[in-house]
Fold:
Amino acid sequence: MKKWLWLGVVSLVLIGFFSILEMGSNHFGKSYVETEEFSHNYNSFTDHLIALELDPLTKDKEWPITADDIEEYRSRFGTLADQLRNIQDQYIADIEQAQSTNNEGLEKILVEERDRKLAAITENFADDEVVREKIREERVAGLAQAANQISSLKSSFLEESAYYVYRLKNIETGETFTKGTIKENPYFEQTYTAGNPLISSYSSYYSLDMAVPEDVLHSNAGFEGTVQIDKALLATSMYAGEIERFEFAKNVLYVFVAMAIAGIILLFTTLRYEKKWFTSISLYQKWKRLMIEFRFLLIFFTLIFGLGASADLFSIIQYTWSVSSMEHNLIRMFMHFSTSLLLIGSTVLQLIWFMAYYKNERSLKEELQQSPTFRSFSTIHQAFLNKSIGFQTLVLLVVIFFWGAGTALMLTIPDLIIVWIPATLFIGLPVLFFLLNRFGYLNVLMQGTENIANGRLNEVLPVRGKSALANHARQLNLLKEGVRQSMSEQAKSERLKTELITNVSHDLRTPLTSIITYTDLMKAPDLSDEERLSYVEILDRKSQRLKTLIEDLFEVSKMASGNMDLQRTRLDFTQLMTQALAEHAEDIAASGLDFRISAPQNAVFIQADGQKWWRVLDNLIINAIKYALPGTRVYVSLNEVNGQTEFVIKNVTRYELGENTDELFERFKRGDVSRQTEGSGLGLAIAQSIVELHGGSMRIEVDGDLFKVTVAINSI
Structure:
């Protein structure tokens, strides 16, 4: 029970706070004569008092006629020629008809009337005095009309302002005006002096329909004296109900404020808040099962309707309260007060649940991101990932919508068919055809995508125009080509993997078989020392061969995985190449090959790991010695081209290489496919990996039996 009492007190405090916001500025510490409503009524009274009693407009009031006034009167209906032509046009048809019927009397009257008007217009443009007199007559008529309209307001003014008394004197003429008796302690009093006189503010004339300037209608007179309100007369006037309603609203406001203050005291003393009051009730468990959108909507609607009920309550108090309908108004006030209390209390309860739930049980951000509304907005946002498609679709839908709305409107207003037909022909139908064309193209692309998914890669998707869909078709074609290349690469990879396994098995098994065989032979007891030494030499050679294979295989794997560390320094490529060739001088001489060296006289510097780059040159030179045709020349050159250092080695091959040079980079690939030469078959693969780790490039070119390797790296 205590929790519901706490909730009711909080709601009452909030209603009290709302009452201060709504009514406080107009009622706190104020009387009726301090309200804007009274100020407006009083200003209207003083304006009408001056216009009707103190300084009324007279019919003989004059104001100067200027040259601009004369010119405006003359050209009011156009130039002289325009006015004369208009008059003639007005009479020409009637005169011709009178002539056709031989009605000479009517013809004479029409001609005289026309000529008289023509003469009057001509005279207006010839004589200023004539125009001035006509303007004066026009103004006299206007002033008479204005004076009559103003005087017609006098009876209603006297009736509505009967509760006012005053004693005022015209400062300029000294004339005094009085009404009623000035008292000592009036309900309201306003005093005017010569320094702060009572003057007209124009507002009383704004509603009059007269062709008279406002500055002429306006009174320039000033008045000093006193204006009072007789309370006894006011109580019997039409404004008595307003004063009664104002006092009632002020008293109710004080009651609300007092209840709010008492409620705050209770909340900080005997009704201290405990969170478990509201999280332990069964309704909280049902509330938690609602979607987050429903929770927000419940809070929003209870708050809005609660504030609406409060606003209606304050409106009844301020604007519709009256003693004559007290019982009816009390019932309405009670209903709105109860509704406001219930809805605001419900809002407070939901806010307590909301804070408790998202503070202790769930993350608000996480639940918002998982909500259907958030996902829907995310989906809408995705519609504009490609802005061209998003905005085109939006524009097309807007055009279709307005075309449909226009069609429906045309059915109710048939005259609109004049606009609807061209709009349909030049906007509606072209947009519809454009939309259907785009949907058709989209279906073609979807069908093509399905074919790609099913492995049918031969059909090329059509690329129509430069739209986003055409670009998508272009991308799908690239994807399809990529899939084809990927499948080809996959087949190649499978073939090379099979060859790799075969070659690895062969290259590792051959020395291993020899080691096992000669180890068994050495176990023979009758083996001579000479034979044993011969076997040991063979074992040593095969072991070194096996070691080389394993080390090369490990090194290639290490470089392929990116775990190779480079110690880059500034290297003289020319010197490094010279040293590498000198290192293999004996092998070159024994091979019967003629090495032709071409290198620049100056040093060529690169940024590289010296040990690894030596391995590159070493592998390429050994590769040439092993696989070059004996008795042929091997060309080695070093050049600097466009900021890059290029090392080129080319020779005539001993074995036929075939057309696919890319496979020479594969692991365990050798020039002699019968695998009769020594080596791991990893030389070129190791060299390429080292070059690529340095940011360089290595390429192989084969022209018949001519084998050429080019290594390029940035110079420094």
Notes: Residues 424 and 430 are 8 Å apart (CA to CA). The chain has five domains: 2-19+245-363, 31-238, 383-453, 459-561, 564-714. Residues 203-210, 665-680 have pLDDT under 50 and may be disordered.
